[in-house]
Design goal:
Layout (H helix, E strand, L loop, with lengths): L1 H29 L6 E8 L5 E8 L4 E7 L8 E10 L2 E6 L8 E8 L3 E6 L7 E9 L1
Length: about 140
């Protein structure tokens, strides 16, 4: 009986050790630094309105946001913002009232060239920014 308990104990340790390694691999895939990069894409807000956007993360904690509501127009406005990246969360703080990008954005997809940011995931207030990197 002691042998059976010993074998079961060893199996449990191995199983839990393997689960921890899988979690680390998933987190490694999500790690990305946005510092000194420029991205273009589309922002879809919680009401379904779409904007063409450009995000430039100029400095370690400061960036520039450009947007337009009609793809044929030039960008309407250029506004600065402060940001803080903690792992796969980018927190954007306003310098001027630019409510459409303020908040915590989760990096939900990243493949080195494309990135998807989601604010308030899995809620009715969810907004999504789908981006392609244009300057690294």
């Amino acid at each position: 009986m002691k042998i059976v308990k010993c074998i079961l104990s060893i199996l449990l340790v191995v199983i839990f050790a393997q689960c921890g390694k899988d979690d680390e691999k998933v987190d490694d895939l999500i790690k990305v630094s946005v510092f000194q990069t420029m991205w273009e894409g589309t922002l879809k807000d919680s009401q379904g309105k779409e904007y063409a956007v450009r995000l430039l993360f100029d400095y370690e904690s400061f960036g520039t946001f450009l947007y337009k509501t009609n793809n044929d127009d030039s960008f309407d406005d250029e506004q600065g913002f402060k940001y803080n990246q903690e792992g796969r969360i980018i927190k954007i703080f306003p310098i001027y009232p630019i409510d459409i990008i303020v908040g915590e954005w989760w990096i939900t997809k990243y493949d080195g060239k494309h990135m998807t940011l989601t604010r308030d995931p899995e809620t009715t207030f969810s907004s999504t920014i789908t981006l392609t990197q244009i300057i690294k």
